[in-house]
Specification:
Number of helices: 7
Distance between the termini: 8 Å
Order of helices and strands: HHHHHHH
Structural class: mainly alpha
Oligomer: single chain
């Protein structure tokens, strides 16, 4: 169960920010190749920051919750503490993304806003689950809240797909393929636990 939620959320985060599966259009058309090269370098550097902002949450999601099934209070505390650190990581990613809305590409704000919305949905899922855990009175309710989160995480895949569509529409796939933090996110997603 632990691996399932981590894999789902990690895959969603990577998809949301920097996956460029498929075709992408040129970042823009330019009148001179020098201007094009300069602008492309700026866009790649900016994309690297966008992926870096999301990467903090991906890294935070890569650990497992501290689960002690033998003690219901420790189970609840372990999961609640784990969720609190994930919520803090998502908050930081969203704050970092807000500072990148005015990037060098004409559709910078459009892409960042879509990514922020996806991150916001992840935060809502985590915060709702934490609230249910914190108000639970027995281990059955704790497990039910965590299981519900796993079920809802699967529905977030559509959000990730929508953001990827936006990503492809903005023509930023080429820049992402050249940005180190974006490449690292793709590796993180492919190495996420699957069981």
């Amino acid at each position: 169960m632990r691996h399932t939620v981590i894999a789902l959320l990690t895959s969603l985060l990577a998809l949301t920010a920097c996956s460029s599966g498929g075709t992408s259009t040129s970042t823009s058309s330019f009148t001179s190749s020098a201007t094009a090269a300069s602008n492309e370098a700026d866009v790649v550097a900016w994309m690297d920051k966008v992926c870096g902002a999301v990467g903090g949450t991906v890294k935070a999601m890569s650990d497992e919750p501290n689960i002690d099934m033998s003690d219901p209070s420790k189970l609840k505390t372990g999961l609640s503490d784990w969720l609190a650190t994930k919520i803090a990581a998502v908050d930081k990613s969203i704050a970092d993304l807000e500072g990148l809305e005015n990037g060098p590409h004409p559709k910078s704000k459009e892409l960042v806003t879509s990514t922020e919305e996806g991150m916001g949905q992840i935060k809502t899922l985590l915060a709702d689950t934490k609230s249910k855990l914190d108000s639970s009175t027995d281990a059955t309710q704790v497990v039910a809240a965590f299981t519900e989160m796993i079920g809802k995480a699967a529905t977030l895949e559509k959000t990730g797909a929508d953001v990827q569509k936006k990503f492809d529409e903005t023509g930023l796939g080429t820049a992402a393929n050249k940005a180190a933090n974006c490449k690292e996110l793709n590796i993180s997603a492919s190495s996420a636990p699957t069981s």
